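Discussion board: Methods & Data

I've been asked by a reviewer to show the raw model output for two of the constructs in my manuscript, not just the figures. I'm not sure how much to include, so I'm pasting the format here to get opinions. Each protein appears as its amino acid sequence followed by a line of discrete structure tokens. Is this the kind of thing reviewers expect to see in a supplement, or should I convert it first? Here is construct A:
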Amino acid sequence: SLGLLLLTVICLSTNAYLTFLLGKYTNTIPTTTSWFNLDPSKVVIVQFEGRELWKELYVGPNTTQYIPTIYNTASTWNYLYSIRHGHEYIQYYFGKTANGCRSHGDLPLYETWCKLRAMRQVQADFPRAEYFLYMDTDAVVDYQFRDRSLLDLLQNMTTEWLPDWNIDERPFALNQEGPGMWCGMVHEGNFSHCLNTGTILWKRSRESTSIMEHWWMSADDPYDSKELNPLGIPFREGSTEADWHPTDQAKAQSLLRPPFRQYVQVVSQPGQLAQTKAPCLSDCWIPHNGKLGCFIMHYCGKNKKPKEIGISEYGRHIGEHLKKRGRRISTGCYRRAVLESSDDEIQLSTEFDTALCRMELFGSDL
């Protein structure tokens, strides 16, 4: 009958339209990851610090006060942010037997290299975790985004911001540097992007673990190899005011070449060499170009004054928060664990330093 025919046409048309929408949807949004249903405790913020977190202040005869450094303040803020949203937090530091940062081949390294030891260690210490965000200790979750969880960030990154990014296929995300001397060096070295390694996001997978292993082992590469050191930089050594050069960051550039390139996602502007505008994972050039409005504020660079002013503001935010809730706390209250001397076998950290406070002190109402 005519009615049955019309009903059949309507059903077929509706089915075709839904198929079109579904196809459009699955081509845009990763189908294997649902951020809305993910347990927030399976997300870990990890930091590493090789410097002293407290400094002595002489106030009179036989009287010394210990005050937190800006790196201590940044770590505390990130810890408070984590527990507010149900994420895990850990900061690694050197134990007394560590003898500084040393490579797999026992070569002395500039301390930033040991972020990779922390990144490898955190996967062992949090075996249930699926997603990890590494942040330098001069980086903080921006105050204006304190109400948004990392799951919100990931949802935004993989839908509105970088719709072609499937984190299951490219589980290791590296941030970009802003325009400057470093990007000029990278451009001359024929790399597609200039990277900044102060913030790194990754999903636990065989590929991301291999990337970290390769990156760490590359610290032992010879300087005189054009293949292994295409930028010609002494990447094991620390930078000085007169002779600036990156360390682990220089070797990260090689991850943009086979065989690892297919597993790496560059954020925030993968279509160009450097980061020049928001949205972005982190902002690492504010002393030069002003605030971009990134989710993470990274007070990087050798100019200490903007760094001290910027991070000290977060100490005020912490104090205001605690004062409103009638609570007092030392600025050094967060979970820490020791990195010992050997990296040959990653084992579960045996001790977590929580002596400065109880983790339950704040509840979840930051």
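Construct B, same format:
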Amino acid sequence: MFRSLSVFLRRCQPLQTNVRNNASFEIFHGTPKCKENSAVSVVLFGFAGSPIHQLEKMSSVYTELGYRTLYCTLPMKFTFSYDIENIKKCAEEVVLAVKKENISEVVCHSLSNNGGVLYQHFSQMAVSEPGLTIKGAVFDSSPGPIGIQNIQKYINISSINKFRPSRQTPVFLPMHLFGVNMANRVPLTQTLSEIVYQLKFFKNNWKRNKHVPWVGAYMTEQERQSWPLLFIYSKNDKLLPWRYVEEVIRVQTLTGRPVLSKLFDKSGPAGHVAHLKYHPTEYKEVVQKLLLLIIIDISDRATSTTTSSCSK
């Protein structure tokens, strides 16, 4: 069974992508050439400042396996100014795009915390949307913390990843923005202007939205769904404490849901959202492992439904 599924998943070639414009938030589409494409589609959420060609590479991982994709990047100014209202509007746009394409089953693939934040709000909308089901989720270099656990990147403090502060602090968000822009090689002058913009709106946004958990806290404290998860991360990640991801994996495994993971010792010099570039074969293999798990689950459910129907 695994062999036949694997042959099917490998033989499809992707078509060119089409673009859907919507102000500053764009949703792109990737369509597989294979006629036997899966009923499941993949929604990809890009990292902060992600150029579209980066998401196209990630989309190709799935279109080459026979899956339709939708992919988009949440504007980072919404993420780092904690503009939850506009983040939710972007999530609503994704829901509308999925419905417009008559997609009923999706796998979410999030890159870094920026992608994780959009996943957080999209998934909450999806569970209450009739006819839309999340079948699985991939986290690449995500989710991470917003508070004191970030010091794990610099100091190895035992068990701090298990510390759950009752209140989240916004102190580290400007540092997050600075770190992300440095990783993206954004000029310092532009970074400083973006931090000024962030601080201009952040105070009021935080006052309104401080009760909304950051994606790391959301995944450890709130999400208790049944769809399988896959975490891809590395020990040399300069932006994400890998031990924090280990804690998220531990917590989610205890809920009883299927949880897969792939930890690399090193993914390039920075280790952040670089796993596909430096470990393409292993990356695709672990993604395919999750997809096969989902396909088998769908097949088992269909068989169960047919058996139940025939016995009546």
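Answer (T.O., handling editor elsewhere):
This is acceptable in a supplement if you add a one-line summary per construct. For B, something like: The first strand starts at residue 18 and ends at 20.
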